[in-house]
C-alpha cells in the first residue's frame, strides 16, 4: 500500500506542482480583489521521504494518495490577527472545505500559550472544475496555514529552539509562556491600534471642523485638510485659472509634514491661520514661481503647501536660512532653485 501511494505520488508530482502554483495565484487574486494586503504567501510540495514517514506513522489510515490532504501546503501570513478570519472566509466562499481535516490551532486553553495558526484543507469548487484548465485537479487537496506575522514569528522561534510548548523543560516553561503571552498581547494590540486608526480616518474631517486646534499635523489630517479647506481650494482654483496647470491629487505628504514642522506649524488651526494671513502675497509669489520654473503644465496638489514653505522662508529675508531650508529637498540644484525663488519673490508683491 505504501509503495503504491509513493508510486502514485511520483507520477503525479508534476500535476501537484502545477496545482500548488495555481492555488497560490488564485488566492492572491481573490485576496487582492477583497483589498486585503498579505505579508506573504508561500507553497511547498511534500517530499518523498516526508510522505513515506507520514504513511508509516499513521499505519493503515492512508489507503490511497487522495487520502493525504497535505501533499500541497500553503502558508498565508497576514499583518494582523484579525485578518486571519477574513482570509479564511474568502477561501471558504471560493473553495470546497474539508471540515473533517481542518483545525483551528489558535484555540488554546486558558493557561496555554504558544503556537497558534488556522489550518484549512481546501479543494477546487465544483464550479471551477467544470473548466478544462482545472478539471485535472478535481481530486487534489491543499492544506493552508493562515497566521499573523507575529504568530509566524513565534512558530519560527519555536522551531529554531527545537522545542514545542508542551515539550519544553519545566525550568524554562515560565519564560516560554511569558514570551508567548507577550507576542499574543502584541497581536491583539495591533488589531486594536488598526481599529482606532480607521476610526480616526473616518472622523478626521469632523475633528478638523469642530476643533482644529486639537488636530496635529499628520498624513491623515493633511490629506483631509487639502480636500476640505476653503483657502486651499481658493489657491487651487487660482493656480488653474492663472497658469492653466493641471493639479493632480496627492497621497504622499511626507515632505509637506517635514516642511510644516520646520516652521513649527504643528496643528491644523495654526496652519489655517498662517495661510489666511499670507494668502494674498503667497498667491502672487506662487504665480511668478510656477511661471519661472515651468513644470510642464502639471503639478501635484501637495505643492500648494510645499511652495508655501518656500514663501515663508523667503518672507523671513534670511538668505543663509533659505539655503539651509532647501537642503531638506537634497543638495541637487540648490543654487538654481535659490535664484528662481528669489526672482519670483522679488517680482511678486512680497518684495
Structural summary, described in words:
This protein has 351 residues and is α/β, with parallel strands linked by helices. It folds into 2 domains: 2-186, Beta Polymerase, domain 2; 214-347, no CATH class. The protein has 13 helices and 8 strands. Helix 10 (268-293) packs across helix 13 (334-347). It is elongated. It starts with a helix and ends with a helix. The relative contact order is 0.07. The model is unreliable at 109-114 (pLDDT under 50).
Secondary structure blueprint with pairings:
Layout (H helix, E strand, L loop, with lengths): L1 H32 L4 E8 L2 H11 L13 E7 L3 H13 L1 E2 L5 E2 L13 E6 L8 H4 L6 E7 H13 L8 H41 L8 H10 L1 H14 L2 E3 L5 H9 L5 H26 L4 E3 L2 H14 L2 H8 L7 H14 L4
Parallel strand pairs: 2-6, 7-8
Antiparallel strand pairs: 1-2, 3-5, 4-5, 5-6
Helix pairs in contact: 1-2, 6-7, 8-10, 9-11, 10-13
